[in-house]
């Protein structure tokens, strides 16, 4: 097997002094899709944010090695330029920042880091329009301020649009399925599936099994109280869906 | 939070124009009385009527109280400690006939400021009047403009050469009784620019005045008067800087614009007076009265301002729309960082029929900056079918700054249509983190957000200056990020 894209060992993190991650272990290989499931408050979104470098979280122990480099030492923008992408659970609105101009600046920052020239404006326009069409994003949304006045579904589609343009090596999807209707869910899933490749890996954080019907994972992890307590194939997600999180609490809770 | 600290340091970089020109200046003793006014008037060889006008203004000022309604805080100003006139010795008595006669230190100063006055280095398509403390150093392109009948010179020169024009229009838009600072200015104003564009002439170049305060403890009180005769067009821009000092300095200017039938005046300001240091020590008090009168039918006056400097800004460039179908516009970007305070906006007074006005105000506050928009839209009885559209947007960067909006509306004609839109948004850690997660540095992110936010207004600046303005914005936002 090839080198892993991401190795997380005993990762611990706090917010405002309160421990949230209490020793997470996770290894992700190129080409894989990992799903991370778990009840609210189990730490799944925190894991996503810590991997992306959000400074509100204090890492108190453990390590995260991304493509052989110490991820935790890198600034958020360096992680992004190196190919770590987080699709946000709640994409922020930024008035005045044109959606397409922002995306172009982001792409050029990443290209520059890779030693490539800035993308030609016309090539960029063609690229974005083509990808946007596939995701069902209107021209009008592309020209609006970033996420301003977007519906929940439009915001999530816009995240996937960015994902498809920025072409990361490791894409982390933080509850991208929450609040989506079935059409948006399918569009998002299709966007993700077309991005699957032997070089790229996905970590899909989700509360429900629903998205996993469309984006089929290679590995499913269950997070509980700041740790990954169980890992398995896609059938684990189905079992969890069938039996509910209370089952988890009984089994894991009593085992401790 | 790391990000907020970074944002703050980003927004509080050093002022680039804070140097002092080592030059000998002559000045009046500090303080204000009728003798000082007579002295200023005598230095300028002014006619009696002007001296009388100054003295009348001074007497009116003595009866007035300093306005306290603005949303700004500052300790009381001691008007007897201010020096009301200061000028380089080399310029005393007579103004140099050509640039060769100008003190090289002065020319160097303007070069350092990026405003070269010498022919070969000048910005093409721009005529510059350079005002240093209380006097005008030089006016470029003057002869070329005169061929077209356009008068563009220092105010002092206009008083000598075109006294009838000055006398006809001075104080007709902002009378000396208008307000405390306008009265003070009328009493002691020293120089400024004068412009007259004759009937049917479109001024082919941008006119601009560059104001520089150099001497310590002085106030700068310039006066600008622009008249666009029937069918004339002129675009004018002013820029301002001052040295870095620990004490506050007062700048109380008056600008009067007059547009006759079918005339158009575009007036742009890039204000970058010394803002004071991080703790709020020093900086310019920028208390300015600017007003335009659309006297003629179909006339238009458009104000565009980019306010980045000054410890305190108090100004409301306004339009009095008298002529039928006349148009008033106000486009503003005001940035306050560190301890800066701005209370700025406009007044649109609709008097004539079918008059229209547009207000677009963008306020940006960061650090402990306080940014207030204050605007009045007044539609009088006779203003049939008057229309106004106002948009006031505020952008807060960090969580210690403030933005305030005070729109006042007085409508006395039922056919009026008035629209007001306002938004407030905050750029905090989450927005910056989002941008960084996409590969942009904090610096790039803030610069993109701010530029995007101001775009609408920056676009209104004359092309030659739009680039400068953008540069100024990014300098304002540049700094050491962690």
What do these coordinates show?
The complex is a heterodimer of chains A (256) and B (482). Chain A is 39% helix and 28% strand. Chain A is globular, with a radius of gyration of 18 Å. Chain A is of the alpha/beta class and 256 residues long. By secondary structure, chain B is α/β, with parallel strands linked by helices. In chain B, the strands form three sheets. In chain B, strands 5, 6, 8, 10, 11, 13, 15, 16, 18, 20 and 22 form an eleven-stranded mixed beta sheet that branches. Chain B has a ten-stranded mixed beta sheet with strand order 4-3-7-9-12-14-17-19-21-23. Chain B has a two-stranded antiparallel ribbon with strand order 1-2. The longest helix of chain B is centred in the C-terminal third of the chain and has 17 residues. The chains are: A alpha/beta (256), B alpha/beta (482). Chains A and B meet through helix 2, strand 7 and helix 3 of A and strand 23, helix 9 and helix 10 of B.
Quick synopsis:
With 256 residues, chain A is an alpha/beta fold. Helices cover 39% and strands 28% of the residues of chain A. Chain A has helices spanning 44-52, 76-81, 99-113, 121-135, 139-142, 152-166, 182-195, 234-255; strands spanning 6-15, 18-28, 33-37, 57-66, 69-70, 84-87, 94-98, 145-146, 170-174, 201-205, 219-224, 227-232.
Q: Please list the strands of the largest sheet of chain A in the order they lie side by side.
A: 6-9-10-3-11-12
| Average pLDDT score of chain B | 84
Classify the helix fraction of chain A into a percent range.
25-40%
Question: Which segments of chain A are poorly predicted (pLDDT under 50) over 5 or more consecutive residues?
Answer: none
- Residue fraction in strands of chain A: 25-35%
Largest interface: A-B, 33 and 28 residues
Structural class of chain A: alpha/beta
Q: In terms of per-residue confidence, which ranges of chain B show pLDDT below 50 for 5 or more consecutive residues?
A: 1-10, 477-482
> Could you give a short account of the major beta sheet of chain A?
6 strands, mixed
Number of alpha- plus pi-helical segments of chain B: 11
Oligomer: heterodimer
| Average of pLDDT of chain A | 92
